[in-house]
Amino acid sequence: MIHVNKEDRQFELHTRNMLYACSVDDANRLNFLAWSGKSPSQDGPVFSSRRDFRLHECAAQDPDKPVDEVCGYGDEGAREPAIRLSILGTDNAVHSTEAIRDLRLRYVSYQVGKADVPHAGAPTHGRQTRQTREGDWLMLTLEDASYPLRVVLYMRPDEDADMLERYLVIENRGGRNVVVEHAWAASLTLPVDRYQATHLCGAWIAEFEQQRQVLPVGSTVIESRSLTSGSRHQPVVFFQPAGRAGRSHGVTYAAQLAWSGNWRIQMEQRHDRSMRVHLGENPMDADFVLSPGESQASPLVLATYSRDGEEGAASHFRSYHSRCTLAGAPTRRPVLYNSWEATYFDLSLDGQIALARKAAEIGCELFVVDDGWFGARRSESAGLGDWYVSPDVFPDGLKPLSDAVHDMGMDFGLWFEPEMVNPDSDLYRKHPDWVLHFPDRPRVEARHQLILDFGRPEVVDCIREQMVAVLDAVPVEFIKWDMNRTPNPPGSIAGKRIWRRHVEAVHQLMDYLLKRYPRLQIQSCSSGGGRADAAMLARCCQFWTSDNTDAIERFRIQEGFALAYPTEAMECWVTHEHNHQTGRNHSLSLRFASSMRGVLGVGSSLNELSDQELGEYKKYIELYKRVRHLIHQGKLNRPSLYEVSDGLSAWQYTAEDQRESYLSVVLVTHTPGQTPSHVTLSELEETARYRVQEMLRGDTFEATGAELMHVGFQCAPMLEKHTPSYVGTDYHWLIWAI
Ligand code: GLA
Predict the structure, then answer these.
(1) How does DSSP classify residue 175?
(2) Is the beta carbon of 207 within 6 A of some atom in ligand 1?
(3) How many A from CA of 558 to the centre of ligand 1?
(4) pLDDT digits (tens, 9 = 90+) for 283-292
(5) Are 563 and 314 in contact (CB under 8 A)?
(6) What is the DSSP letter of 72?
(7) What separation in Å is there between the alpha carbon of 544 and the centre of ligand 1?
């Protein structure tokens, strides 16, 4: 709900439990007023009259200065400006006395309506219609006091998900060139306090690790410089008053940036205890000219508030993404088989058909051929860029395999890495200039590959045409979209704009394919977890979470992932007993227990398994299919987190109508002599009666919702001492109303 107090020029944006407010002062500055909780029953505005910014604690540092919603360089005093730019003079030179490095944004008007300019990263294939509904958006127009440089701030409260969406559009309406040196997509102010922050960091095969720290006085920066959203940090951060909140209790503010390229989040905790966070594209090497008449939209920022700790805020992100970001995406996520770890580059038609037959027998619904099916790609060192079916591997094209897979009742999928080229490829030999490089300087290979210059439209056209030729020839329902290296050097025909152009080109190419092939699903891979972000999620309905498929590692990785994204987007595979990344051995039940928590996949060498083992695979896949609708469409609550509960991990997924719930419990590790803690459930009806059944062992009992939610139960019963399976024992509880 948007409330506008016209007389006092005060704006309130309400979600069920959150308030965001700003107002215009006598000097026509748009001031931040409040970001806080509110009661769901609050219908009308929270502020009864004009609110003086001095009443708000956020003015601590400069008591006489309000905090601007969008602060230009020139108005900022000692603060971080939202926008830094130079308005060039008639000499068009940056380093000239004529260049004006001063921006004073003043309020012009407001409008409540449709977002007429979509944010950067918004899908263009029409899957999402929610964001353009009449009355959804508050648009606040600001303009520089002396040059027609406009900034429109777009904000939409999503009531049900308790989420505020916001972004900026900068418009050069004057006659001069403007060099935009830096523009944050949003600068958010928190109530004055000392804060602890949680964010997700990592590296290849160690993604989504949770970092918690009391913020030092000063600036703390997390960012990506990898041309993708990256695995080193995730563009999401949670803030809590230090020491007064935790994982599932206490006031929590959280923000997330929807951008698939370089980004930065800067957290500013000051000595006076004021606190701001800035989110946007990474300013590194990214200044650009906005010519007369040009405009640029920022990526979308999501902001939320909860009284239920990080998990409360995380559940807002999950619910928002399921309802909004994934709006229009297919809800069916087939059980996937991927042949990468079974065959690597050793592909053949017969070998793939043999694997597909076994995959279908155990219950897989999608068969994906990974790397190596195209061009001269018999190893990492050749073939990228040549997206035609290899006659050496598939002499009659992909049709015999695709037909066989479809006849077995499965969908068919293919791996692509569209942004890359091996120097040993037809494409590179023909167009050596089509890669990121600087003339007459050495090109730097990584994994024997170079990045194509997506700043050149002809390069994107060429890749699109090649992909279309493959996808037109045989029905392909699934693409694994990989991206496996970082950009150095970033020399492009687009100059410094390449950081944005590349991301836009990838988004547009995906949008084109999704529109042309309405049944197509895309998985975002990027070495596993390297390009998982909300702008990708609008296109790729699932992420390959990590190349690390070690079950124990996956509990940690998945705990982090689910802080930002829904489990229906979290692809998890069961692979070999002897893990290829860590060399550790884990039982099949442990591997399934971790992989059943999102979109289940299998990546094992099925040809090497006994019938008895294949039977076990089949049993678990059947079990998963019985509860898949809850795992994908249900609400996730996490009564016990592996990292804090002595190795007991319990995730509960509940249907919206509260009639059915699935509780996945794993004793990942356990201290001998201690009884595993019992857990209490959530989201059930207090007075309803439920039957509770352990799906593998058949143990059953009945209880009321109140009993399960307040008293709880021993969901991991004690095993005999010295039981070898004591570590890694899984329990699958189905709870349904009777
Ligand atoms: C990356 C991906 C893997 C696999 C290989 C293929 O490493 O993360 O899953 O697809 O590429 O080369």
Answers:
(1) S
(2) no
(3) 19
(4) 999 999 999 9
(5) yes
(6) B
(7) 10
